[in-house]
Every structure is written in C-alpha cells, then in structure tokens.
Amino acid sequence: MGLLHAAGKYPRVLIDGPYGTPAQDYKQYDIVLLVGLGIGATPMISIIKDIVNNMKQLYGDLESGAGGDASVHPSFRTRRAYFYWVTREQGSFKWFRGVMDEVAETDKKGVIELHNYCTTRSAFIAMLQSLSNSMHGVVSVSRVRTHFGKPNWRDVYERISLNHRDQRVGVFYCGVSGLTKELRELAQDFSRKTST
Q1: Whole-prediction pTM value?
Q2: Can you tell me the distance from the alpha carbon of 113 to that of 79, in angstroms, rounded to the nearest whole number?
Q3: Beta pairing class for 112-118 and 80-87
Q4: Which domains does the chain possess?
Q5: GO terms for molecular function, please (predicted)?
Q6: Local structure of residue 93 (DSSP, 8 states)
Q7: How far apart are CA 172 and CA 133, in angstroms?
Q8: What is the mean pLDDT of each run of 10 residues along the chain (196 residues)?
Q9: Would you call the peptide bond into 18 cis, given omega within 30 degrees of 0 as the criterion?
Q10: For 133, how many CA atoms within 13 A lie in the half-sphere containing its CB?
C-alpha cells in the first residue's frame, strides 16, 4: 500500500495530545470565575452552556422554575459563575451573541453573570451611537454587561470574595499568557487574606 516505506516498514508517525480544556475541572468548585481573552472565550462559552444544562437537570426548567432531580449529577457543585470576556474589537461580541443572549434569557435565577469588556476606542464610539439610537427609540436590551476598557481584576476578585465568603472559587483562564501571572497572584493573595 501507499503507507509502506520502501524497506517494507510503516513510516514513523508522532501524535501530540490529547489536550483538555483549560477548565475541565470546573465542576469541583461552588463558584467559578471564567476569563477569556479574545478567542479564548470559546472554551469558556462551552463551560457556560454546560453549567446551564447541568442547572436545568438539577433544578428543572430555569425559565419556569419547575423542580428537577438533584441526584442526576451528584458531582456537579457549581452554583454560581462569573464570565469575563475581554476583546479588542466590539465586532467580536457577535461571535457568541446568540449563545450569551440565550444564557441570559434562560438563566432566570441569575446563576451566571456575564461581562464583556471591549478595549478599543472604536467601541466607545459605538456605545455613543447606541446611546443616540436609544434616545431616538431604538433600544437593545440584554443582561450581558458591556464595559469599555480593561477590568480591574483586584476589584473583580474582591467583589467575588465578599459575595462568597467561606466558599471555594475556581479561577479559569484562556488567553495570552500575560494575564496568567496577575490572575494567579490575585487568587493566592485573596486565598491568604480572606476566607474565600
């Protein structure tokens, strides 16, 4: 066959992987902070969808408030999630807008808090255009909070630690390596100085 080497041996093939997601163990935490930079939001969106699906099984239909079966996923501990997506271009928010709007609509209990951060000036101009549109009767309503600039990570950690005293918070990140050190140091600092 075509795979046989001239000497009758198969060619040497190297396989690298498989790789797990950056937050494959999120279910071990009561509270999760999910941070995605740019396209790094992709695995975090998958986790958010998984949280919604698990919550539906645990508590029933999140929209109607109908009860579910808590014995379905006894290993699922997550009861609250915070998602922060930081991107340069406002247009990037269109990638997952449908999913994020669906999560916001489905999550009547407020389990997942969604934050989008746009770091370019053009986003500020777009925000002013949206404000102008709303003044003229064109309004876009969403539970996804959109911010301009970069998050103050110390403030984010502080708010979460105050809201969830004595609970374990898992911090999961996907993006360029530059932010990893800051998020890790803040997690260690808040672990030492608070009960969270």
Answers
A1: 0.74
A2: 12
A3: parallel
A4: 27-61+77-192 (3.40.50.80)
A5: NAD(P)H oxidase H2O2-forming activity
A6: G
A7: 36
A8: 58 68 78 92 88 78 51 71 86 76 82 87 59 53 71 96 93 91 95 91
A9: yes
A10: 10
